[in-house]
Amino acid sequence: MKISVCIPCYNVENYIGECLESLLNQTLKEIEIICVDDCSTDRTLAILTRYAKCHNNIKVYRNLFNSKLIQTRKVALSHAFGNYIMFVDSDDILERNACEIAYNAIVKNNSDIVEFNCKQIDINGKEINEDKSYCNLIEGKLAGDAIFENFKNNKIGQMLWNKIYKSDIIKSAYLQISFSRLYYKEDVFLTSIIYNNIKSYYGIPDKLYKYRLHSGQSRASNITLEQFKDRCKCADIISDMIKCFYSQSDLTLLQLQMIKSKMNNWLKNSNLEELLKHKGEDGFDDYLTVFINAWINNELYDRLQYINNEDIKDIYYTQLRLVLECLHTIYEQCGSEVIKDNQAAQNLCNRFSACKKYNIDSIVKNINNDIDWRS
């Protein structure tokens, strides 16, 4: 089998048929279509079952309980026998020649991964801004350190679905994931792991994927307290991942930069002001404590005194500045008693009160002037 196309499915009765038709009509016929239903409550499973009865290259599996995206993709991969893997979201569509073009590109260039461009469509399948490209990619070949550098700088994509992968590469990456669900920005951290495993990348400009943009999706939406809770859980998971990464003695400077960059981008984009609108609601302080503790990670800074490489120190200090700025923002926005009581936050400020790198001492001074720390 040349390609296994993995489709996680949940409550997509209005779109899954169109998605499957786009795969059944591919010019490349040596593909298998693996659908995993994540306990849908609508007619999704019935539609999948009907298609599977009519087409022997469609395989349908169902999770025993709602397991979310990461675990559902893992299940799909466990049933995939193709030499190459593609992911398609169940409400999206592939161009008729997508599999053939992607397959030819990855075989011809002997790459671990090939990235292609995409179009956006509305809920009715009509293309939006036809002349615009929506995916960051670099045309041609990248190898070695250049892959990490361009990923770090967001010059190549962070989505799983606009790519074709060597099967062993993507399966190896998923084996490194110790958790079954990530509550926010799954693709960013999965692609971080994937790019850490590949030696060659190839980008092509062809718009092979049609990404469905749902109503209101392009606008920043309000964040509920439950979503805030999910982000806090995500921060905790990522914190553990970062500790693990930093403890690896063979970690390269470039890999450290990549991890730092992705972590910092997550924190910057966590929409703190929006999250903090929930101050006073039941459970807010508990969630906020998890959020703060996950991002302080004092034990990471314990290593600073043993690091002689100035570039690596720079990574730590850049992260530290961002964490302190966010800590100050949290206090300014909600004046939460959680901050005053947080011993880890107080210890962090005390430790770096005289650090002049990146004006960290000035940030700490502002925090200490505003916050009356409790002993």
Automatic annotation (TrEMBL):
Pfam families found in the cross-reference section: Glycos_transf_2 (PF00535)
Transmembrane segments: none
Example of a GO MF term: hexosyltransferase activity
Domain Glycosyltransferase 2-like: 4-148
InterPro entries: Glyco_trans_2-like, Nucleotide-diphossugar_trans
Superkingdom in the source lineage: Bacteria
Protein name: Glycosyltransferase family 2 protein
UniProt organism field: Candidatus Scatousia excrementigallinarum
Lineage: Bacteria, Candidatus Scatousia
